[in-house]
Every structure is written in structure tokens, then in C-alpha cells.
Design brief:
Length: 298
């Protein structure tokens, strides 16, 4: 297995490995070392099935159940296996039609164009996310990544001191309200409540610090909401400057893995009413203590 640095030291392209097959413990360990170094790894030309993607993902931890799948009605789901995320513009299980412009699922998914960290609206956010391309549009629909370690390193000493102990409040509601979406199925109010996360994280293996930003942030504990949101907006603009960003142009068969603790990501626009985009997402549950538990233990 070989890893070639692609950009700015935080993206690596992996070759010389077939992830459609059962991996050895040495191969899994090598991928994890690569993730610790790069934060984003790309694996070209990997024709995975859904089952193979789930099996590959399980090498790195317990799989996360998607929130969109949890909140959707069974008849609205394309996949009944809730660990498998449908990142497509198909009309649910009907793959002969694309979603209408005003389809609620399309409206919800449009917020993925905002910079975010997956599942930061949970008490413990996602670890790795894995995204595999099945059908890609002729243009657009890239996924962009921003290195939150480099963004933290670029802060001045006084800025680092200011953000060090801040606690932010995350909710899926905060990201969706930015695009005017608020149409949730009833009975999922518990999933919508804000949860606290530190704004600065320390990687458990490397010891590097990174910013834990996301469009899901709607407040900072102890701050007035307008001031908090303006501050987070400014910090996100700093963290997503071109020198911190990599844009992945998808090819069929690409598998991309990223660490949600150390990078932001977002989708870019494409003609989703005219062309198919079909990818599968799996995610690894985060590990560690919730912020409330961690603070109580200090």
C-alpha cells in the first residue's frame, strides 16, 4: 500500500490495496496511520458493493446510524439498512426519477453545501466518514475539505487563547435554518436538541489541536447568540481560506475517507434536477466522553 501526498499535507491518495476484499490487521493499521497523518484519504478505482462498503467501514469501529434515515418514514427510505446513507438525488427507492425541486428530502440535503462536520449535532460526533461514488454528474458536485489543524495553527497566540475553552452548541436545526428549512417529521424532537462541544479539539493520537467548526453551531455557551454566530462565521471564513482547502473531483469508484475531528467538508452545486449523483455514505461513531462528562471529570 502506498500513500501519495495530494495537497497541503492533509490529503493522501492510496494505491496498491484492494478494499473490496477482507483487509489484514496490518492493512487496517496502515490506513489508520495514514488518517492520523493526512486526515483525508482517497482510494481510486474501488468498485465496492453496498455490503463491501459496510464491511470495509467496520474495520475502523462501530457504524453510525444516519439521522436522515432515522427521521425519514420507512416508505421514504431508499435503504432500509440505516447505517448506509443515500447521498443521491433519486426519488427515494424510485431510481427512475429524480427528486422534484420542492421535495422535502432535497431541501434538507441542500444544507450539505454548508461547511460542516458530520454528526456534530450528536453528543459525540462522528469519527471517520466514508463516501463512495457510484454515479457522478458531468460537472460540479465536488466535495471540498478544509484542514482544521492548519486553520488552528494559523491563529495568533491571542486568538488561540480566546478559543481554547469555548463551548459551542450544535444542532441539525441550526444548519437547516440557514437555508430556510424547518419541515421535520414529528416525533424526533429529541434529535433536534442542541448539544455542547469544545471549539478546540486535541487529537488523541497525534496531540495536534484543531478547530471543531460546523454549520450546525448555533451558539457559544455564555455568549449572546448574535455575537456567537458572527464570531463563528468569521472563524469559519478564516478556516476555509484557499490555502486550507482541497476540492475532490469525483470519479466513479472513488472512495474517500475523512476524519470529522480534523476537517470540515461540504458538497458543491450541480444540476441536481437534470443529472444523477449517486454516492453511498457510511460513518464511524465517535469515541470518548461527552463534553458534560469530560468537564465533570476534570
Amino acid at each position: 500500500m502506498n500513500i501519495r501526498a495530494v495537497q497541503n499535507g492533509f490529503v493522501g491518495e492510496v494505491t496498491g490495496i484492494d478494499i473490496c476484499k477482507q483487509l489484514t490487521s496490518d492493512e487496517v493499521a496502515a490506513i489508520e496511520r495514514g488518517m492520523d497523518q493526512y486526515a483525508v484519504l482517497t482510494f481510486p478505482d474501488q468498485p465496492l458493493t453496498d455490503e463491501q462498503q459496510v464491511t470495509f467501514t467496520a474495520n475502523f469501529g462501530a457504524l453510525e446510524i444516519t439521522l436522515a434515515g432515522q427521521m425519514a418514514k420507512p416508505e421514504e427510505r431508499r435503504f432500509q439498512q440505516l447505517e448506509l446513507g443515500d447521498i443521491s438525488n433519486f426519488n427515494g427507492a424510485d431510481t427512475t426519477r429524480l427528486r422534484a425541486r420542492d421535495d422535502k428530502r432535497r431541501m434538507y440535503a441542500l444544507a450539505n453545501r454548508l461547511w460542516h462536520s458530520d454528526a456534530s449535532f450528536r453528543a459525540i460526533g462522528a469519527g471517520y466518514t466514508l463516501l463512495h461514488a457510484r454515479i457522478v454528474p458531468s460537472r460540479g458536485a465536488d466535495t471540498q475539505f478544509a484542514d482544521m489543524r492548519a486553520a488552528y495553527d494559523a491563529l495568533s497566540p491571542s486568538e488561540k487563547a480566546e478559543v481554547e475553552d469555548l463551548i459551542c452548541e450544535h444542532s441539525i436545526v441550526f444548519s437547516r435554518e440557514q437555508i430556510g428549512f424547518g419541515d421535520y417529521n414529528p416525533g424526533h424532537e429529541e434529535h433536534l436538541k442542541p448539544v455542547p462541544h469544545r471549539l478546540v479539539l486535541t487529537h488523541p493520537k497525534t496531540g495536534r489541536k484543531s478547530l471543531y467548526l460546523s454549520s450546525h453551531i448555533g451558539g457559544i455557551v455564555g455568549w449572546p447568540v448574535p455575537e456567537a454566530r458572527a464570531f463563528i462565521r468569521d472563524l469559519t471564513e478564516h478556516a476555509t481560506q484557499p490555502q486550507f482547502v482541497y476540492s475532490h473531483k469525483w470519479r466513479v469508484g472513488d472512495m474517500v475517507i475523512w476524519d470529522n475531528r480534523t476537517v470540515l467538508h461540504r458538497a458543491t452545486r450541480f444540476r441536481d434536477l437534470e443529472e444523477v449523483r449517486d454516492l453511498r455514505r457510511t460513518s464511524i461513531k465517535g469515541v470518548g466522553l461527552e463534553v458534560k462528562q469530560a468537564m465533570a471529570a476534570e
